[in-house]
Specification:
It holds the Pfam family YfhO. The chain folds into 6 domains: 153 residues, no CATH class; 135 residues, no CATH class; 167 residues, no CATH class; 106 residues, no CATH class; 84 residues, Jelly Rolls, CATH 2.60.120; 76 residues, Immunoglobulin-like. The chain has a 5-stranded antiparallel β-sheet, with no helix packed on it. 47% of the residues lie in helices and 17% in strands. With 828 residues, the chain is an alpha+beta fold.
Length: 828
């Protein structure tokens, strides 16, 4: 096991370290999946949080485009229409994801799950390989440290973030590449691996790039003193190869940058005051195993990587064969990360000048890398470390755990974790003594077993939550069968599921939709949805709370229900498939229609009450109000109303402190959540005389509400006014729409397409300037008469990005050729 030993173990050979680092985490994950009953070992799935709501739908849409030849530049199946190139850059850019084209449609969830398991194994492999190369060792123990890198607290918390994992795999390789750049004056490996990381996921790569700057300075400090020229040339190489790495990824990076300006993350308000979230001692305590991971809004880092780090870190500090300079540099880096976890300004910087919305300390994988590396450095000199140092390290670690039990008050810590930690510390100490007694083959085998058990127990206790696979896929075949009946369509349409699993059901089942949950969500569109009474939050908007008027404005022609409903004046049944019912909204406006020039300016769409916003549009159009007020009565802390006539009813909660509402309906109780977002609560169709009681979910709060009945007659009047000059599409594809519009008089062609500078519009063959209308949508002025309209989409930044990536690749090849021809000279 010692670094320079030539003795071959009969139990674990030195070369087995890389095999151990890959296969042990993979086997552990498979065993946990079997225990959890994850398909095909049961009917559960590893769809967790955003993987459930975002990643699976986006993978489905990606596969659909690859298989059908759809464009990777734009998609109508996600949130009214989105820049798919930007969505791809954020969620799907890993080159390994292209393998999804080989996966049967029904097993996309399993494809993602399998990729996560493989990437976890590759993470352990890459870290073990780094230790071998950096430390010039063949010991199999690199595999033990690789296991803890692959199954760390970071992975326990965030392994379901499949788009981050490529960066975790590549990080040790990038570090090794930077070390070669400084020591061997060869920056090619660094450049290629960093470029691939940025290409795979630019967001986590921001943190990698920040650390590379710090680590480059650290490497210069660790180098033997030399002439100034040496440092200048190192800086030149670092800057040059870092720029080329960024340039290689420009084809996905620049389109993403263009879109981020329009998202909720676009505003960067640097904190004005410095604050600390928690003390260093409490953060250190999170090295204790089996501690519940933090994925919410608290800021706790997930830094577990084996309790043996308590021992080995103390041995590292005490080891006389490790220079004081090295200890100072690496301990300084570790301390900097502790500060970045706790200090708000540093936290803001590490996350790309933005506070993360949950999932805290996303840079903690770098800290884990550093901690495991310094512990391995102590392990290298374990044979030379006195036994008294081992004893002191053990008792020091035990004392820390005992103090943690006394002082740490986090709810994540169960009392049992402290006892388990002490047991593992004792076991590791015993193995160290066995190793020092020259029973190294046996110690190596027992150490592998102990490491595997500890990592498996921690992952089992703190990770791999599941959801029902059957529930997620229950109506997929029925929905797809109904959607196939609609294609190809003569004119543009959107579809919404009334009973959704996610806000991205359109992407999951590949039909043009309205709702969206994505970090690339358009912030202006989110505001519009909220103003119209639909549910919306920071990175999401949906059709929940929508009235028939909103459906019509957004070209929602079809609706999918999980139960049969009678036909109304506005909705007509079409057909069903296996318990899923397809209906048509009879008065749906087309994708585009001509408005008077001044309508958008005069519409008071920024009022707080969305019912008043919709009625103000009716006022401008000269129609009756679509939402008719209904009297309410105070009933304790809630309110009651009686349906004055049969129809569809909506409620607007005026008290913003109320977050949950229970409605007692004739069909039974119905609960509404996130009511403080200000959306209209849909009571459904009520018969005349129905008496409804609304009560708040929060004790001590009084519910104040405005109740409205929707008027079909007024809706038809609005439709008749707005549909007089419609856009008739001849064809509509992902990135191109063509059609004709006949304007009775000059006005503005309103398009229910989210505003995006990537759209190029021509009218009668002549370029026209697209404008933003209602702060969210695309529009263009048109003169009276009949016009040919064409819209073509090209993501902003894509063409420059392709040019920069091509030029960067050419420069890198040229530098490689130059270096090959001058092998005897130091250079780039």
């Amino acid at each position: 096991m010692e670094p320079n030993s030539r003795k071959r173990s009969t139990l674990i050979r030195p070369g087995d370290g890389l095999v151990i680092a890959f296969f042990v985490p993979v086997v552990i994950m498979i065993i946990i999946f079997i225990q959890r009953g994850i398909f095909p070992f049961g009917e559960e799935s590893f769809l967790r949080t955003d993987m459930y709501h975002q990643y699976a739908p986006f993978f489905s849409e990606f596969q659909h485009k690859l298989r059908t030849g759809g464009s990777l530049l734009y998609s109508w199946d996600v949130g009214m229409g989105v820049n798919f190139a930007a969505l791809y850059a954020y969620y799907l850019a890993s080159p390994l994801n292209w393998l999804v084209i080989l996966c049967p449609k029904a097993y996309i969830i399993e494809f993602m799950t399998g990729m996560i398991v493989v990437k976890i194994g590759l993470s352990g492999l890459s870290f073990a390989w780094y230790l071998r190369k950096h430390c010039h060792t063949e010991t199999a123990a690199v595999g033990y440290f690789g296991i803890f890198y692959a199954l760390s607290g970071y992975m326990a918390a965030y392994s379901w973030n499949i788009m981050w994992l490529d960066c975790i795999i590549l990080f040790p390789l990038i570090v090794l590449g930077l070390e070669r750049l400084v020591k061997d004056e060869n920056g090619f490996f660094y450049c290629i691996t960093l470029g691939l990381s940025i290409l795979s996921n630019y967001y986590i790569s921001i943190m990698t790039c920040l650390f590379m700057v710090l680590y480059f300075i650290a490497l210069l400090m660790l180098e033997k003193p030399g002439p100034i020229k040496k440092y200048v040339m190192a800086c030149v190489r670092f800057g040059l190869f870092s720029l080329i790495a960024g340039g290689l990824a420009a084809l996905v990076l620049l389109p993403e940058v263009a879109v981020l300006k329009s998202t909720a993350s676009g505003n960067m308000n640097f904190p004005k005051t410095l604050t600390s979230y928690f003390p260093i001692f409490d953060m250190l305590a999170r090295h204790i195993g089996n501690v519940e991971t933090e994925t919410g809004l608290d800021h706790w880092p997930n830094i577990y990587c084996g309790v043996a780090v308590f021992l080995f870190f103390l041995l590292y500090l005490a080891c006389k064969k490790i220079s004081a300079k090295e200890k100072t540099v690496y301990c300084g880096l570790l301390l900097l990360f502790f500060a970045s976890f706790s200090v708000n300004a540093l936290n803001f910087i590490w996350h790309g000048l933005h506070y993360p919305n949950s999932l805290p300390c996303r840079q903690s994988f770098i800290y884990i890398f550093l901690m495991l590396f310094v512990c391995f450095r102590a392990f290298q000199y374990l044979r030379d470390i006195p036994r008294r140092h081992v004893a002191a390290a053990f008792w020091g670690s035990v004392c820390f755990v005992i103090l943690a039990e006394k002082l740490v008050e986090q709810e994540h810590f169960h009392f049992a974790v402290y006892y388990v930690a002490i047991l593992f510390l004792a076991a590791y100490t015993g193995l160290i003594y066995l190793y020092k007694k020259r029973r190294r083959e046996l110690a190596a085998f027992l150490a592998l077993a102990l490491v595997a058990v500890e990592a498996a127990v921690n992952t089992t206790v703190t990770s791999v939550t599941t959801t029902s696979r059957e529930a997620y896929t229950r109506d997929n075949k029925e929905v797809q069968a109904l959607m196939e009946k609609l294609e190809p369509a003569e004119d543009f349409y959107r579809v919404e599921k009334k009973t959704r699993k996610t806000k991205n059901d359109g992407a999951w089942m590949n039909f043009p939709s309205v709702s969206l949950f994505s970090s690339t969500a358009n912030a202006d569109l989110t505001k519009f949805f909220k103003r119209m009474g639909c549910e919306a939050s920071t990175n999401a908007y949906s059709i929940t709370g929508s009235t028939p008027l909103v459906d019509s404005l957004l070209s929602v022609r079809y609706a999918l229900y999980s139960e049969y409903i009678p036909n109304t004046d506005l909705v007509n049944y079409i057909q069903e498939s296996g318990g899923t019912y397809l209906y048509e909204n009879l008065y749906t406006l087309p994708l585009g229609f001509v408005l008077p020039y001044d309508l958008a300016d005069n519409w008071q769409y920024q009022m707080e009450n969305p019912a008043e916003v919709q009625n103000d549009l009716c006022l401008l159009l000269g129609t009756d109000d679509v939402l008719v007020p209904v009297e309410t009565e105070v009933s304790g802390s809630g309110c009651t109303f009686t349906a004055d006539m049969a129809g569809e009813y909506y409620v607007y909660i005026q008290n913003k402190k109320v977050k949950n509402v229970k409605a007692s309906l004739p069909s039974g109780e119905k609960n509404f959540s996130n009511v403080d977002r200000g959306y209209l609560l849909e009571m459904g169709n009520l018969s005349e005389g129905s008496r409804i009681t609304l009560t708040p979910g929060e004790s001590g709060e009084t519910l104040t509400a405005a109740v409205y009945r929707f008027s079909p007659r007024a809706m038809i009047q609005v439709y008749d006014r707005l549909s007089q000059s419609p856009l008739h599409l001849d064809s509509w594809r992902d990135t191109k729409l063509t059609g004709t519009v006949t304007a009775a008089e000059s006005g503005t062609l309103f398009l229910s397409i989210p505003y995006d500078e990537g759209w190029t519009i021509t009218i009668d063959g002549q370029p026209a300037e697209g404008e933003k209308i209602l702060e969210a949508f695309l529009s263009v002025p048109v003169e009276a008469g009949t016009h040919e309209i064409s819209l073509i989409y090209m993501p902003g930044g894509l063409i420059p990005g392709v040019v920069i990536s091509g030029a960067s690749a050419a420069v890198l090849v040229l530098l490689w050729i130059v270096k090959r021809r001058r092998p005897s000279q130091a250079g780039v």
